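Students often ask why inverse folding is considered easier than folding. One informal answer: many sequences map to the same fold, so there is more than one right answer. In these notes we will look at a single instance of the problem. The structure comes first.
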């Protein structure tokens, strides 16, 4: 999709709920970010979320169990290292999202803002869900930017998306108590059958809408998969006071084009 003009890329996002931009980050950016991520992963640099904390399918029962210190996410990426802060506020991201929102994009430091990992052992499955399920904002037009720091496929737990799911309306019973899209619900079968898993290379970016249904399988490779993900909202969209979404200030992005 990276051969498309920005307005055409945005049209794809609006239509299918996600768009892949090839080679958006340079090999130098990817190498630098990956080096920091691997070092922080090795040294367990806080803040960290462990697979055992969420206990999704395939995760250890507790931190004390075998594999219990398998990392799921390196949290707080923006404040974790200046390299991550520079990536999260990269002018090209600001320009792209500024065109999409039609106004200044704001980085959420509460939601996503992390390095996602997927380990071959004890890396859990993530069921179909919409990211907006636990977020509280005055509008629901939020977009996440997912950067692959290495190859991503279905075999190593790459993201799958359901095209068009961001624009649909669903009944509450189509989701379970944890707000995962139920795979045992007949009405959901046709949606799930549409799913695609775009193969990514290091430096590729996926912009996806917070209402787009997505999921990830386990990692059947021998290497840990690493990705950086941040979420943005337009400046006119505000986190709801008193909610977790409002617990930390956002960071406005500048568009160098004005």
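Output (designed amino acids):
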């Amino acid at each position: 999709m990276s051969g498309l003009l920005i307005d055409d890329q945005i049209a794809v996002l609006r239509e299918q709920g996600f768009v892949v931009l090839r080679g958006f980050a340079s090999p130098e950016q990817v190498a630098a970010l990956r080096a920091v991520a691997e070092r922080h992963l090795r040294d367990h640099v806080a803040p960290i979320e462990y697979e055992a904390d969420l206990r999704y399918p395939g995760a250890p029962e507790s931190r004390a169990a075998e594999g219990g210190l398998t990392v799921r996410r390196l949290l707080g990426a923006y404040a974790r290292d200046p390299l991550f802060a520079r990536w999260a506020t990269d002018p090209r991201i600001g320009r792209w999202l500024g065109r999409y929102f039609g106004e200044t994009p704001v980085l959420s430091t509460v939601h996503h803002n992390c390095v996602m990992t997927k380990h071959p052992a004890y890396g859990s499955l993530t069921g179909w869900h919409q990211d907006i399920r636990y977020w509280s904002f005055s509008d629901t037009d939020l977009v996440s930017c997912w950067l692959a720091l290495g190859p991503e496929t279905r075999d190593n737990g790459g993201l799958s998306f359901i095209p068009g799911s961001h624009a649909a309306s669903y009944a509450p019973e189509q989701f379970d108590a944890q707000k995962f899209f139920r795979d045992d619900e007949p009405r959901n079968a046709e949606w799930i059958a549409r799913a695609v898993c775009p193969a990514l290379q290091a430096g590729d970016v996926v912009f996806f809408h917070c209402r787009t249904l997505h999921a990830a399988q386990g990692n059947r490779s021998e290497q840990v998969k690493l990705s950086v993900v941040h979420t943005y909202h337009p400046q006119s969209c505000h986190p709801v006071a008193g909610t977790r979404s409002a617990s930390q200030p956002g960071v406005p992005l500048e568009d160098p084009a004005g």
